[in-house]
Amino acid sequence: MFGAYSGFAQFLAMKRPGGFDVIIDSDMTDRFAGSVCGYVKAETIATTEVKAPQFVVEIPGVRWSVQLASVSSEDTAQEISRDLASSGWKPYTTRRDGKSRVFVGPFSTRAEANAQMDDLARKKTLNGFVLRFQEPGESSK
Do the domain assignments include residue 107? Predict the structure, then answer.
């Protein structure tokens, strides 16, 4: 089957330092990929029940975070972080390209990060997405 046509599958590739993160969404249930690629309307994301993936491949030694916000105001980022911390999550912020980003994590598995992302969507109505964890000091200011 090498080189054979295997059919159409939605995917999303995001450039990261040192490579790309790729989400292959063959059953079209990934909320983040669907909203970015346009096959899931943003207003339906919060109300759509998404089934858990059947098979998750973990990468040994890789930790994960959930990005919840990207805002221009550091004060707004700190306010979101304080709200998350008061509810028991462990937020952190980074500043890059004039934007403050709010994350929770790190998590030792992508499955754990996905579960926290879903929990945050239910409890805080924050729609995030999962990224590989980078130490907050690694982002450029």
Answer: yes
The amino acid that residue 12 corresponds to is L
Burial 84-102 (b: 16+ CB within 10 A, else e): beeeebebbbbeeeeebbb
Domain limits for position 46: 7-52
DSSP 8-class letter at 17 = T
Tens of pLDDT, residues 46-93: 555 656 555 556 667 788 899 888 889 899 999 999 999 998 888 999
* Whether residue 78 is found in the same domain as residue 121: yes
CATH number of the domain to which 114 belongs? 3.30.70.1070
Percent of the chain whose predicted confidence (pLDDT) is above 70:
66
